[in-house]
Design a protein that fits this description.
There is one protein chain. The chain is an alpha+beta fold. It has 19 helices and 30 strands. It has 3 domains: 145 residues, Creatinase/prolidase N-terminal domain (Creatine Amidinohydrolase, Chain A, domain 1, 3-Layer(aba) Sandwich), CATH 3.40.350; 139 residues, Creatinase/prolidase N-terminal domain (Creatine Amidinohydrolase, Chain A, domain 1), CATH 3.40.350.10; 302 residues, Creatinase/methionine aminopeptidase superfamily (Creatine Amidinohydrolase, Alpha-Beta Complex), CATH 3.90.230. The relative contact order is 0.09.
Length: 621
């Protein structure tokens, strides 16, 4: 099993850990300390040794920040975790706040006093973050002070060691482009930015640029390393030697100079001594790296990580690989849905049994390298927690009428998948059908969207929300995130959300996942991955238009749909999608499962004349 279900109940010892950390701060002359959920590389997912936020507070979400002072504590999370944080964290010690409605900068201004010193680990905060926090402290005449040795590490007695797992070459048959060519393209970007070098810290950027993969982070195939790419198409890669076998070392020696990770600061200082101009991305590079460069004499210029856009815009090999991976994954998911349909009425299932069975079906493809994130397997009230993590303690039996939500994905060499299905157990209520259908309408609107080149995800996000807005409801997460190619399941800069200001470009893969969550009762989400591509030109159109191609293939639960709420074109889309699911998946299923799939993909209106699949974003162009 790639997923584990042990309980990480850090809450029980919160008091002792908080007391020890406060003592450490007082000993070093600090009035408070910032504890983010990040590591030195600033990626979304972190290894066990960097889970300082969870260790201190009990919160296990993928994004958050805690502030601990001598007499107060606060934790800041986004809308995905507003329910989860209250279940996992002792609110008397760390008061929960929504990081948009009540950000950490406001808390600092409300709680710090003149002359107080708020410490932070400069490796764990980006340049942009430190700038905002410094200004907030200055407004109340407090001081934000870097701490060279993280005080959490000083009191975390059984802190895990940093991972040093093998690094492997990602072969050209999957990457579609040689690393030497990628580095040459990056060098041209660096020259165009009038810089001599660029520092890369994001694990997936480095993995993409050098065509390497690893397993230092659970469910994300990357290694933890740093890189400096120079305008002369040369590169320095900072990676632990024990992670490289002979073949991988020979491969990397041909495209980069290899260094121990501990050599990074020395190389940065050397660039400064040579008066080089070095580009960093202030949204992703740590304050420590930026300060080392500037203090050594380098000219530091700010610019976007040059890997982000080319990595997001998949080449034809990666696109075809994703299509293949999604059809393979669709078979596994359809086998699971058929199994669930057969087993759930027996009322003997629970959330963990379901998650294990889904992983088993993916394993039986013979191609599974890992799951792409811990499966969200939630029934009833647990389904109302958008990023719920099932554990042995929270595991809920599926033994009554209600809604089961499963959000899961896989890592295959040819693609990364992420798909969510919401399934009725027993007889759903009229309210459940109404909300499910409205979520489905939002999903279909995005899937069918045609939009002019230059459109951002933020401009499309509203489309998915309107069916819920019509009845005064909404969902408190983005409609979609970017997805990598055998990389991170959450990839930037593309996304469909209120904050998704990146232009959507052909080759980008994003999720389409509107939802609805009724606290303490049930949750609904419908998610497919979609590919941005050119749209067929229609008569009279003057602008170049783009559209989406749906990549994910699994039935959408017909028992939760109220057809009276669907427009004719929405019914056409759903019927056509289900026909595609049947045609693609049925031949690859066992005979006993084909009858179930035929029924699960039956047309809502079988008499309606089917339209061109190209209109609905199916098929390949």
């Amino acid at each position: 099993m790639f997923q584990v279900f042990e309980d990480y109940d850090y809450t029980t010892g919160t008091g002792e850990r908080v007391a020890n950390l406060r003592s450490e701060l007082i000993r070093n002359g600090f009035d408070g300390f910032l504890v983010p959920r990040s590591d030195e590389h600033q990626g979304e997912y972190v290894p066990a040794y960097a889970e300082r936020l969870q260790w201190l507070t009990g919160f296990s979400g993928s994004a958050g920040l805690a502030i601990l002072t001598r007499d107060a504590g606060a934790i800041f999370v986004d809308g995905r975790y507003t329910l989860q944080v209250r279940e996992q964290v002792d609110a008397d010690t760390f008061v929960p706040h929504h990081l948009i409605d009540h950000p950490a900068t406001r808390w600092i201004e409300e709680n710090l006093r003149p002359g107080q010193r708020l410490g932070f680990d400069p490796w764990l905060h980006t340049v942009d973050q430190v700038d905002r926090l410094t200004k907030a402290c200055a407004r109340v005449r407090a001081e934000l002070v870097p701490i060279s040795a993280n005080p959490v590490d000083a009191v975390w007695r059984d802190q895990p060691k940093p991972p040093r797992k093998p690094i492997v070459v990602h072969q050209i048959q999957y990457s579609g482009a040689h690393a030497r060519g990628k580095l040459a393209d990056l060098a041209r970007d660096i020259t165009g930015a009038q810089a001599d070098s660029v520092v890369l810290t994001l694990p997936d950027s480095i993995a993409w640029a050098f065509n390497i993969r690893g397993s230092d982070i659970p469910h994300t195939p990357v290694g933890l390393c740093f890189a400096i790419v120079h305008a002369m198409a040369k590169a320095d890669l900072f990676i632990a030697p024990e992670q490289l076998d002979e073949n991988t070392r020979d491969y990397l020696d041909d495209i980069a100079t290899l260094h121990e990770p501990s050599a990074l600061l020395g190389e940065l200082r050397a660039l400064g001594q040579q008066k080089k101009t070095v580009q960093i991305d202030p949204a992703w590079v740590s304050s420590s790296i930026s300060k080392t460069l500037s203090q050594s004499g380098a000219t530091v210029v700010h610019g976007k990580d040059p890997c982000l856009l080319p990595k997001a815009c998949k080449n034809e090999v990666e696109i075809e690989g994703s299509r293949t991976a999604h059809e393979r994954d669709g078979v596994a998911l359809c086998r699971f849905l058929c199994w669930f349909n057969r087993e759930a009425p027996k009322r003997r299932l629970d959330e963990i049994k379901a998650a294990k069975q889904l992983e088993l079906f993916r394993t039986e493809t013979g191609k599974l390298k890992d799951i792409s994130f811990a499966t969200i397997s939630g029934f009833g009230p647990n389904a109302a927690i958008p990023h719920y993590r099932v554990s042995e303690q929270s595991n809920r039996k599926i033994d009554e009428d209600g809604i089961y939500l499963v959000d899961s994905g896989a890592q295959y060499l040819d693609g990364t998948t992420d798909i969510t299905r919401t399934i009725a157990v027993g007889s759903p209520s009229d309210e459940m059908k109404d909300r499910f259908t409205r979520v489905l309408k939002g999903h279909i609107i995005i899937a069918m969207a045609r939009f002019p080149r230059g459109t951002s995800g933020a401009q499309l996000d509203v489309l998915a929300r309107k069916p819920l807005w019509d009845i005064g409801d909404d969902f408190d997460h983005g409609t979609g995130h970017g997805v990598g190619s055998y990389l991170s399941v959450h990839e930037g800069p593309q996304r469909i959300s209120k904050l998704g200001h990146q232009e959507l470009k052909p080759g980008m893969i994003v999720s389409n996942e509107p939802g609805y969550y009724k606290a303490e009762e049930y949750g609904i989400r419908i998610e497919n991955l979609i590919l941005v591509r050119g749209a067929e030109k229609r008569d009279g159109e003057e602008r170049e238009m783009l559209s989406f191609e749906t990549l994910s293939w699994a039935p959408i639960d017909l028992s939760l749909i109220d057809p009276s709420l669907l427009l004719p074109e929405e019914i056409d889309w759903l019927d056509d999608y289900h026909e595609q699911v049947h045609d693609r998946i049925s031949p690859r299923l066992r005979e006993k499962d084909r009858g179930w799939l035929a029924d699960a993909t039956r047309a809502i209106n079988p008499k309606r004349r089917r339209k061109s699949r190209g209109m609905f974003g199916f098929g390949r162009q």
